[in-house]
Specification:
With 283 residues, the protein is of the alpha/beta class. It has helices at 2-25, 38-53, 65-73, 90-93, 131-134, 146-157, 169-181, 196-199, 226-229, 231-239, 244-256, 260-270, 272-277, and strands at residues 28-33, 57-62, 79-85, 99-116, 137-140, 163-166, 188-192, 202-204, 216-223. The longest helix has 24 residues, at 2-25. It is globular.
Length: 283
């Protein structure tokens, strides 16, 4: 009899253990991020914190955008919040038939060449006449990025007598800060939204030939059956939209943070009304 009671208790324990975990495992959401892409990473981290408060287990991982889109297409990644359309990622999204947009999360995104505001030129067409002041170089980010490719096209289209120096976003920002501290002329590749525009007094150079394209929007993409599995979370992504001042505040705080997870938690607590306005948990 004692043996029977032992086995009953043992299997009851297993049932309770895995039964209780099952609900949490069933609410696991995988979100992709790209190293150094501050706007998407900030939006992802506050969403992770908010959904965690709603009872979801959210895991994040970093990879190149092509790999994240492919991973969503085969169902391994659920969400990627940083797809720039129609230009930057248009060709990257097109080959994948098993992903879809859940909604636009930011309007007015832009790529281009950026200078401090004390630099008294306003167009890419004026760069050659001021080559000596800029040292004949454009400080860029990682070689292989879409930004670097566009900048190569800009150099050719405007016949610029400049070299693009590629490093990383962090190195580019460091060069920019050093030049501003010394009031030197510098031209860098950058994009908006970005914390650079909250920290420094900088401006885009006009691009009359539209090589970098017009302003874009940023969309949240999900795997195609995500809506069926997580209807409430899907509706959140349909409604989640970051106004420029809201995202600028978030990016500036994230850049200054030594603990992004804690900063995301604080931001979520301070912006509960906004986040809850995007949330609709009806069945």
């Amino acid at each position: 009899m004692r043996r029977i009671i032992y086995f009953v208790c043992f299997y009851l324990g297993l049932f309770l253990l895995f039964g209780s975990c099952g609900g949490r495992i069933g609410k696991r959401i995988s979100m992709g991020m790209v190293e150094g892409w501050a706007e998407g990473n900030a939006m992802t981290l506050v969403t992770k914190e908010f959904l965690t408060q709603k009872g979801y287990l959210v895991v994040t991982h970093k990879a190149a955008p092509n790999l994240l889109l492919a991973s969503m297409d085969n169902g391994d990644t659920d969400v990627f919040m940083n797809v720039w359309l129609p230009t930057t990622h248009g060709d990257k999204v097109a080959p994948f038939g098993h992903i879809k947009s859940a909604g636009i999360n930011y309007e007015g995104a832009r790529l281009g060449l950026v200078v401090p505001k004390y630099v008294d030129i306003n167009s890419i067409e004026e760069l050659n006449d001021n080559k000596d002041k800029f040292g004949g170089r454009i400080v860029g980010i990682e070689r292989g990025s879409g930004m670097a490719t566009y900048t190569d096209s800009v150099i050719m289209a405007y016949d610029l007598d400049y070299r693009q120096l590629n490093s990383s976003m962090i190195a580019m920002a460091s060069e920019l800060q050093k030049a501003i501290d010394e009031q030197r002329w510098i031209v860098v590749t950058a994009w908006q939204p970005h914390w650079l525009f909250g920290r420094y007094d900088v401006k885009f150079l006009e691009d009359p030939k539209k090589i970098y394209g017009d302003t874009e929007h940023i969309e949240t993409f999900v795997r195609e059956d995500f809506e069926l599995d997580y209807p409430a979370v899907y509706r959140y992504f349909q409604h989640a939209f970051f106004e420029e001042d809201v995202l600028s505040d978030l990016l500036t705080r994230m850049e200054a943070s030594k603990n992004e997870k804690e900063t995301a938690r604080e931001w979520v607590e301070e912006n509960q009304e906004l986040l809850n306005s995007w949330w609709d948990d009806r069945e």
